[in-house]
């Protein structure tokens, strides 16, 4: 009886909170700040920026040690056991690796702390000096986290590098920071070996899995690295314990290299104080974080969103289970058919996502519903329509007995995709479309906290609260930040605009980072310190405030192109509107000042396009052939037009011509970042001939 009452009361409370949101709850209020004139907002509940949520804790090293003392016997880090690795071949002859993964095997907080201390000592015994820097160049895993915390215990600055970075960017990052020790997996070690002759300072390589890649023998004789396995470093540290040298709040914890979406990556210097401020602020927003929660860790730890999230989880006693985007669900690309994905095994309650991942979940559900058809499809559409109408009107039907019925008949199957227990999803890294946000919210029955922040602000900026049922916004300022809008007259955005102030978004607070490593010119361009000592970062994004103090991102200065007849086109805004088409896996809009129209490169969704073609009786040799057919291009163009009209795009914003592409854009191809953002300039160069032809076609 008790469990039943909780199951009814919790949704009812959530409903009342949502009603209060619709009744005009204030979330942000104007604040007087220094610096360039503008319109600034702070969080309603915090008159001054939050720096630490833990009394006496001022660094990430102190925070982790205290958490391990409090939760000594609780599970902290979990990794799935590898049962087998198999190679499968498709009909086209391509090879695919498939993994059979077993249960999660866990380290307690006490065991993890012991490993961290051993790694810190082992690093010293290998000869790594405190003033030298360590680079972690690997996929997300528990060794990544242990190495990070181990470096913090010796006040060693960690350079984080996306595992998907190409040779030029990798070489630039390692040389610029004069890294002496590199921690990497086998796949990443192969890349390091390939550029070994170009690295100036690397002395030590620590291999996470202890395996050597096929090119290990090709290291030039002039390179005098020592190569040690991660387990050997732990063993060395256990046998030769060294006292910690803990950092100060102003010490640089991480130099985080951006994903390089606009050229060579820049190294953002983050202090312990910076990251701690963001973590402390998020704690005030996510409801009831505690030891009963389980966090699914699969995004790149080289991204500030994941790094900050894992530090927060560990701080409050939460279990962290590791996975990857390619093994996340039962149908993920690298999961052996008939075996379980990471989410099914872990059954997490909390997840962080980037919009591209949520878009894939949405598309996957829709495709499965369409493929099933019949009564199942009818029930799903009916349940979704009822829940959607409830969101927009009366909430009683959504959260009472009807909710329980629809959950049992329809949505529990959708929730099972991510383990069935997710209660909160944090989305960041890029704008989340309103369609995807609502779809995931309804199907998972869990709020999505959409945040806005940048590497330069330690992911801190704004965050939508759990009782905010709106979509398309990124919430009120986090308690660690002030958000200010300043005029951008060239783009037509002014803080005096009615009915809402509009302008470039500037973020101020203790989470704003020190600047770019060895790049004083760029640092001075986008970082400013005001007369009150507050540090501000100029984002280049354009936003406006709603009446309740919440922010909406409406443009980006760099993404705005002026067409031949004077119309302004926001590339990112249009792409976000068009990617909701079921035929689209990815898209890049291209606008040229010498033309009066736009064109687009569209990566086609193979399953959806092939299903449509089969129903139309179209014959094709392979998917590339299907994408070249005139009727396919016409069908996808029609779908884009429908999405554009739904988003109320202007005629000049809608691509007049498109090129359908059959090959997906992946981090490995270098066309998208590790966070799955498109690399606009790289794509433009690779497909320059296709773009030129789109403009020249009459």
Automatic annotation (TrEMBL):
GO cellular component assignments: endoplasmic reticulum; membrane
PANTHER family recorded: ACYL-COA SYNTHETASE LONG-CHAIN, ISOFORM J (PTHR43272:SF83), LONG-CHAIN-FATTY-ACID--COA LIGASE (PTHR43272)
Positions of the AMP-dependent synthetase/ligase domain: 100-517
Gene3D superfamilies per record: N-terminal domain of ligase-like
Family of the protein in this entry: Belongs to the ATP-dependent AMP-binding enzyme family.
InterPro entries: AMP-binding_CS (IPR020845), AMP-dep_synth/lig_dom (IPR000873), ANL_N_sf (IPR042099)
Catalytic activity reported: a long-chain fatty acid + ATP + CoA = a long-chain fatty acyl-CoA + AMP + diphosphate
Record protein name field: OLC1v1016246C2
Signal peptide: 1-20
UniProt-recorded Gene Ontology molecular function terms: ATP binding; long-chain fatty acid-CoA ligase activity
Keyword Signal assigned: yes
Pathway: Phytoalexin biosynthesis; 3,4',5-trihydroxystilbene biosynthesis; 3,4',5-trihydroxystilbene from trans-4-coumarate: step 1/2
């Amino acid at each position: 009886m008790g469990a039943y009452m909780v199951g009814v009361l919790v949704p009812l409370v959530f409903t009342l909170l949502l009603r209060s949101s619709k009744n005009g709850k204030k979330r942000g209020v104007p604040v007087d700040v220094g610096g360039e004139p503008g319109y600034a907002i702070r969080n309603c509940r915090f008159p001054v920026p939050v720096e630490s949520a833990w009394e006496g804790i001022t660094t990430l090293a102190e925070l982790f040690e205290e958490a391990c003392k409090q939760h000594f016997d609780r599970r902290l880090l979990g990794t799935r056991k590898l049962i087998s690795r198999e190679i499968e071949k498709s009909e086209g002859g391509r090879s695919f690796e498939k993994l059979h993964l077993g249960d999660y095997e866990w380290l307690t907080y006490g065991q993890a702390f012991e490993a961290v201390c051993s790694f810190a000592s082992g690093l010293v015994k290998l000869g790594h000096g405190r003033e030298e820097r360590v680079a972690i160049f690997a996929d997300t895993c528990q060794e990544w986290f242990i190495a990070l915390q181990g470096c913090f215990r010796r006040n060693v600055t960690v350079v984080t590098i996306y595992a998907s970075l190409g040779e030029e960017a990798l070489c630039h990052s390692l040389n610029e920071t004069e890294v002496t020790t590199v921690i990497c997996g086998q796949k990443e070690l192969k890349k390091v070996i390939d550029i070994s002759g170009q690295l100036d300072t690397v002395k030590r390589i620590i291999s996470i899995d202890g395996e050597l890649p096929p090119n290990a023998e090709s290291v030039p004789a002039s390179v005098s690295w020592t190569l040690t396995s991660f387990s050997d470093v732990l063993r060395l540290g256990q046998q030769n314990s060294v006292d910690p040298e803990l950092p100060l709040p102003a010490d640089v914890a991480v130099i985080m290299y951006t994903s390089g979406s606009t050229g060579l990556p820049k190294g953002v210097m983050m202090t312990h104080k910076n990251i701690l401020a963001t973590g402390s602020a998020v704690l005030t927003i996510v409801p009831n974080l505690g030891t009963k929660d389980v966090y699914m860790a699969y995004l790149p730890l080289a991204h500030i969103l994941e790094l900050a999230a894992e530090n927060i989880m560990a701080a409050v006693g939460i279990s962290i289970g590791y996975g990857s985007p390619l093994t996340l669900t039962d149908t993920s690309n690298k999961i052996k058919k008939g075996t379980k994905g990471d989410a099914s095994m872990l059954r997490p309650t909390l997840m962080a996502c980037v919009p591209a991942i949520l878009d894939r979940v949405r598309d996957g559900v829709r495709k499965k519903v369409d493929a099933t058809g019949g009564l199942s499809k009818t029930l799903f559409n009916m349940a979704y329509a009822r829940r959607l109408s409830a969101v927009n009107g009366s909430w009683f039907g959504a959260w009472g007995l009807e909710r329980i019925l629809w959950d049992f008949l329809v949505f529990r199957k959708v929730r099972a995709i991510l383990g069935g227990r997710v209660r909160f999803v944090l989305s960041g890294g890029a704008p989340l479309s309103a369609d995807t946000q609502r779809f995931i919210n309804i199907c998972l029955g869990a709020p999505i906290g959409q945040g806005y922040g940048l590497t330069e602000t330690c992911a801190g900026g704004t965050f939508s609260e759990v009782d905010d049922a709106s979509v398309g916004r990124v919430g009120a300022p986090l308690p660690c930040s002030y958000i200010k809008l300043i005029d951008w007259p060239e783009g037509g955005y002014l803080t005096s605009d009615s009915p809402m102030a509009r302008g470039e978004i500037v973020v101020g607070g203790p989470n704003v980072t020190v600047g770019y490593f060895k790049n004083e010119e760029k640092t001075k361009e986008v970082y400013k310190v005001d007369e009150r000592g507050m540090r501000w970062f100029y984002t280049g994004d354009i936003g406006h405030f709603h009446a309740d103090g919440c922010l909406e991102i409406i443009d980006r200065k760099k993404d705005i192109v002026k067409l031949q007849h004077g119309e302004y086109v926001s590339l990112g805004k249009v792409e976000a509107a068009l990617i909701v088409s079921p035929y689209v896996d990815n898209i890049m809009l291209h606008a040229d000042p010498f033309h009066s129209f736009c064109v687009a490169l569209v990566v086609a969704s193979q399953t959806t396009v092939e299903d449509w073609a089969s129903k139309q009786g179209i014959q094709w040799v392979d998917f590339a052939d299907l994408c070249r057919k005139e009727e396919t291009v016409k069908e996808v163009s029609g779908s884009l037009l429908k999405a554009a009209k739904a988003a109320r795009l202007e005629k000049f914003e809608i691509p007049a011509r498109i090129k359908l592409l059959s090959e997906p854009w992946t981090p490995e191809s270098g066309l998208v970042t590790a966070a799955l953002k498109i690399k606009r300039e790289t794509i433009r160069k690779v497909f320059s001939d296709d773009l030129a032809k789109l403009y020249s076609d009459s």
